[in-house]
Amino acid sequence: MEPLSLPSGHRGLSASEAKSRQAAQGYNELPRQGRRTPLRMVTEVVREPMLALLIAGGAVYLLLGDLTEAVILLIFASFSVVITVVQEYRTERVLEALRDLTSPRALVIRDGVAQRIAGREVVRGDIVVLAEGDRVPADCVLIETHDLEVDESLLTGESVAVSKDALGNAPRGSESGGSNAVYSGTLVVRGRGVGEVTAIGIHSEIGSIGKTLQTLESEPARLKQQVGKAVTIFAVIGIAVSALVVLLYALLRGGWLEGALAGIAVGMSMLPEEFPVVLTVFMAMGAWRISHARVLTRRATAIETLGSATVLCTDKTGTLTENRMSVSRLVLPDGTQWSDSEAGGTQWMPELEALSDLGILASAQEPVDPMEKAFHQLGRASGRAPGDGRNLVREYGLQPGLMAMSQVWQRTGEPLALVAAKGAPEAIARLCGLSDQRADEIRALADTMASQGLRVLGIAQAEVPHGALPDAQSGFRFRFAGLAGLADALRKNVPAAVAQCQSAGIRVVMITGDYPATARSIAAQAGIAEGDVVTGDELARMSDQDLASRVKSVSVFARIRVEQKLRIVNALKANGEVVAMTGDGVNDAPSLKAAHIGIAMGGRGTDVAREASSIVLLDDDFGAIPTAVRLGRRIYDNLIKAMGFILAVHVPIAGLALLPLIFGFPIILGPLHIAFIEMIIDPTCTLVFESEAEEDDVMDRPPRSPRAPLFSGSRIGWGLLQGVAALAVVVATLLLGSWRNMPADELRAITYFALVVSIVALIFVNRSFTSSLRSALMRPNRALLLVVAGVASTLVLTLAWPFAGHLFQFGPLHWDDLLIVLGGGLLMIVGLEGFKWSSRAFAGAVVEM
């Protein structure tokens, strides 16, 4: 529940009435386009090339009169469908959960209490409270307004905000058809209001014209394009080689149907259908894992980009600090000071009490801003309520170029109204018309306070006849009342988080609207690089070229206006930096969208900021950012491991499908054998590598280049090297068995066993880029244990069970045969691990992000 003055005379719906209306009207949401049902998933899987090859193989076996093999192959095809659909359904469930988290929230009044609910739960008749930065949850007629302006460009295409009035007031015109109504999906850019919901879901204005809200992307486009290109290349090569195999088999061995089976086997061995499945599952599961760290990934592309961020722009209040302020010091115009930390210091006196009261009167009656809460807290501590008996007559908000706000109060029967103002010391000095010398003295005092980590506000007062209120704050004759220093402690985990970012090659830049000395003090406490501080006034005088040069060395920007953040982001991008940017307000949206990674605050952030961002910090905690970077790098690392494993295992499979045909050995692999191997590869990729722990140096290496390809030359070379090593073990086993004159079924069994052992060995080799095998084995991975145990049990079953042996055309093997194969697999692991150890530069190229 939020602090809020409830609209007069409105208690809203009761909980029971809202529930009954929701049952009758449905949820406040539009039909989702392209929602993937299990039936649709099955339909998509049936069209996959690998399944088509399995079905074709089963059909050929039927033509050959082998009903058993045909049925088993079709069962494997069914397993393939089930596994894929389960993976896809799991992914879809994860994405649905993330969409629910990203859905807008609405502040409604029910049973006389203000409460936040999901936007989809709003019903007709609800009383909705709107504030700056909110997205309107449903079509409403306005009951109360205060300086309300709404961006209706979603409906009209017109970017100019539209002024709104409450029903019954004089209309001011609206392009969208009514100044007393607001529409679902539009944005409140100024002021506040209260409305009664008149239409929801498809019955709203946005529903009637067929607009849909932005939804979560399930795959990053760049990676998807790269993977699609790779699969296409493999498929073309596979089709060509398969056609050649059919032709060679028919010509050399005289059997077109057997040749078709051999061609199907080769096609299955060379088609890496796992690539797109792995990409989808890793990205969705990555977003889900990051959400457990209280970091919401609204666009999966952010996972890819996280690993390449070079600069992180962050604000100060609430992100680096706790956003829980307290008035720590008061300074009167004559220099008299009071501090809450000075035992035996200046005693509380009427003048200090009057200064404190002005701070309260210049703040909202129901404060949300931490600084305004601090003034009210100080007043409550002394038992004072300066607003009692006064009526708020008018408010003057912050304006561009004048960082100050004023409120006018009037007591009944008194001829003069009291005006209380607070804001930046220089702005207050300007409002008070102080001389240059006096303004310099105040600035020096404010600098001293700010250097101690305090946020400094100037306070002023004026008196004016009630009927003579000017249009702007500058029309009052203010008198300087003093300064207030507010303390906002640094979050305890910030220095460690900043150090982690810097260790990972990410430069942290603070951009704040606070006083330069305060910003410098907080930056020093946080461990952000010291140096010059650029102010908003200085930045305004810089050209884009000058700013691009300055941002290379400056890490602290102070007194920055929200519109200047965009210039800073663009300057960093012009220097080739990959920029992550935090923000929370309506005016932060352009800079959040311009940054490569927009990071919005989930707690104090507005709907506009959240929708413009790709990542949301649910707890507004800076410490979550390096955690997200760490998880993002881990996800990308594991994706590369899985891709390398897939590339490697297809080399011995393809080799074993081709070599016997070329050199006259018995055909080892048929569609049934390869289908069984696919049952190993898929869960290995999506279970073992996805859950693999992070690399030891994940936060000690520089960001990867955003232009780095997914399949770089070094990665392809490393995958092929592993595949050739596995093929060598398999071929050596085949030659050894042939040299020992083993029967064809025994030769097939020992060679196939060697292939499976080699694939399992490649799992261990690919678990880590940089750690030794021993270190990798020390890291727990429950999925790995399950997969290895399952593979071993199934393989033993196929060798020991006569029916399975007949089905796979395996002959009996002896223990010494199995030991030879296991020894070959172990030798391959040792050789590849030795290569990694002796070629760290190569390994570094493989893992380079």
Domain module count: 4
Structural class category: alpha+beta
- How many helices? The count is 30
Question: Strand count, sense and closure of the main sheet?
Answer: 8 strands, mixed
Average pLDDT confidence is 77
For the biggest β-sheet, the strand order reads 8-22-21-20-9-17-19-18
General description of the model:
This protein is elongated. Strands 8-22-21-20-9-17-19-18 form an eight-stranded mixed beta sheet, with helices on both faces. A hairpin with a 4-residue loop joins strand 13 (404-411) and strand 14 (416-423). Helix content is 51%, strand content 16%. It has four domains: 1-216, Distorted Sandwich (Calcium-transporting ATPase, cytoplasmic transduction domain A); 265-282 and 631-847, Calcium-transporting ATPase, transmembrane domain; 295-321 and 491-620, Rossmann fold; 329-340 and 348-487, 3-Layer(aba) Sandwich (Calcium-transporting ATPase, cytoplasmic domain N), CATH 3.40.1110.10. It is α+β, with helices and mostly antiparallel strands. Mean pLDDT is 77; it is low at 1-6, 170-177 and 210-221.
Quick recap:
The chain has 849 residues and is α+β, with helices and mostly antiparallel strands.
